[in-house]
Design brief:
Chain lengths: 380, 139
């Protein structure tokens, strides 16, 4: 990883999808200059729906003045960003390319909330889940009910996780929800899909992020701030939750994690920061358990003891996570990786974690149908 | 104004899927006997291609449930509504709405039975999708 471009996640009513993409590209160029780019991967889930645009990747390449550069859109639900970086990583590893640009761009605020809810319901099985009125939030609500029922988890543990994410986002200039919340406010928030409350859910967001991946040699030519991708892995799971033996196990995450650890040759105890896919608080709990950083049904004890807070030994989502940084679906995975790059190069400013060496990033699509896991390391 | 990319049901799709929705048909691998509800050509367990239809019966229990307050556009007219993850007697799980009761009457473990209902209506095409919902078991 040789450079990045970012804009703040938020409601960008006055900017189009291509405008968001161009802005983060220009931000990247302001850092690394007009470098060679062999290929562009664009991660955008709703380009065709909210912006009525197929072929968004070649459109964006043209818009950026990248003449004749091949460009492909990657769609992997809200794991599109992580999977796009995974594909970019493979294309450099293949030896074909020296320099690959990934741009995640998403507009979720083009239409009213019920239409955005309908779009996100397409992340579910279109034959067995969404035709019955099930939503993405509803699916996580089913998981949360079963989880709370099975492990007798106190509700405030979920609230505390949300409080923690909001606290972290206050210091992240790129975060959407830069305000602290209290447990009282969490409990007062309206129910979206029982038992999920509004403050259990990531917000509806626009956003874009750019990341430049290079070979080591080319990276050294153009940048003084390099971060090594020690592992890039992806895995899938039974698509519909009705096909899973347990809806509390995210097998795409545990499988991708296993592969990443062996590829990077690191142990869990070598990981200094976790960047996880907390699209809902229950998604965070199940992710931490599926990644093996807490035991099944025990995450609430760790959360209530501040085990994952920013000043702990294992900070989770120091930039506020999906919950409070915001969740511009197809761009989210790129944000996660860019923020982790900033942590490892010491550029994270007020949300900097002291001296991290290895960061693990988990980006999940839909209800866990697919997961991308990256392990990033500082280059000494 | 209608956005064509919304979850608009198509007549061929509703027709194709009606048998399973009307009769709650499931599947079983002839080789390893694994039952499942999602139609497949390859057994997810043993990868056999020999799969047959089975009846799943009309009874099950609520494994988990949610009440949807922020529905997709198409389901706005009957929000809030209850959706259950139902475990049927043969051991397979299905998603379906739980009707004829209030949210506070639903509990994990509640026994339910199939009820044939209108699942959704498409404002534009007038297409009605019928199928299974679940209601508390009537003794
Ligand atoms: Zn079989």
């Amino acid at each position: 990883m040789a450079g990045y471009g970012l804009i703040r996640v938020g409601e960008h009513w006055n900017k189009s999808l291509r405008h968001l993409g161009a802005e983060v590209y220009l931000d990247l160029v302001s850092r690394v200059g007009e470098v060679k780019i062999n290929k562009v991967y664009v991660s955008s889930l709703f380009a065709a729906e909210s912006s009525h645009q197929y072929l968004f990747a070649p459109l964006l390449a043209d818009h950026l003045g990248l003449e004749h550069v091949p460009a492909t859109r990657v769609e992997a639900g809200d794991a599109s960003g992580g999977i796009a970086v995974h594909e970019a990583f493979l294309s450099i590893k293949s030896g074909m390319f020296d320099s690959v640009l990934v741009i995640g761009a998403e507009k979720m605020t083009e239409h009213v909330a019920s239409i955005s809810t309908e779009s996100r319901a397409k992340l579910l099985d279109s034959k067995y889940e969404s035709p019955h009125g099930l939503t993405l939030a509803g699916t996580y609500a089913l998981m949360m009910r079963e989880y709370m029922d099975k492990y007798s988890v106190p509700r405030e543990a979920f609230g505390m996780f949300s409080v923690e994410m909001h606290k972290n986002a206050v210091n992240n200039p790129y975060a959407q929800l830069r305000f602290p919340i209290t447990l009282e406010k969490y409990f007062e928030s309206p129910t979206t899909a029982d038992p999920l409350k509004l403050y259990d859910c990531a917000p509806i967001s626009d956003g874009a992020a750019a990341l430049l991946l290079t070979s080591l040699d080319y990276g050294k030519e153009i940048s003084d701030s390099l971060v090594e991708i020690k592992a890039s892995s992806a895995a899938t799971d039974n698509f519909s939750i009705i096909d899973r033996d347990s809806i509390l196990e995210l097998k795409s995450t545990s499988k991708a994690l296993e592969e990443a650890l062996s590829e990077a040759k690191v142990k869990r105890r070598n990981i200094d920061v976790l960047e996880i896919h907390d699209s809902f608080t229950i998604a965070a709990f199940l992710s931490l358990e599926s990644l093996g950083f807490s035991q099944k049904g025990k995450t609430h004890e760790l959360v209530l003891n501040n085990y994952f807070s920013k000043d702990s030994d294992l900070p989770v989502n120091p930039g506020g996570g999906l919950k409070a940084r915001g969740h511009p679906m197809g761009a989210t995975g790129v944000y996660q990786l860019v923020e982790s790059y900033m942590q490892l190069t010491g550029e994270a400013g007020h949300f900097q974690v002291p001296d991290p060496k290895n960061i693990l990033v988990q980006n999940m699509g839909g209800t866990g149908s697919i997961t991308a896991v990256h392990i990033l390391s500082r280059i000494e | 104004m209608r956005k064509r990319w919304l979850l608009v049901a198509s007549a061929p799709q509703v027709w194709r899927e009606s048998k399973q929705r009307y009769k709650l048909i499931g599947f079983e691998c002839e080789n390893c006997k694994r039952p499942f509800f999602v139609e497949r050509v390859i057994c997810p367990n043993c990868k056999s291609r020999k799969i047959r239809e089975i009846r799943l019966g009309a009874e099950g229990t609520v494994e988990s449930f949610t009440v949807i307050f922020n529905p997709p556009k198409k389901f706005e007219y009957h929000s809030p509504y209850i959706i259950g993850l139902i475990k049927l007697k043969k051991g397979v799980k299905v998603i379906g709405q739980i009707v004829d009761c209030l949210p506070q009457e639903v509990k994990v473990g509640l026994e339910v039975e199939v009820s044939f209902r209108i699942v959704s209506k498409d404002e534009d095409t007038g297409l009605i999708m019928y199928g299974y919902k679940f209601r508390p078991k009537i003794y």
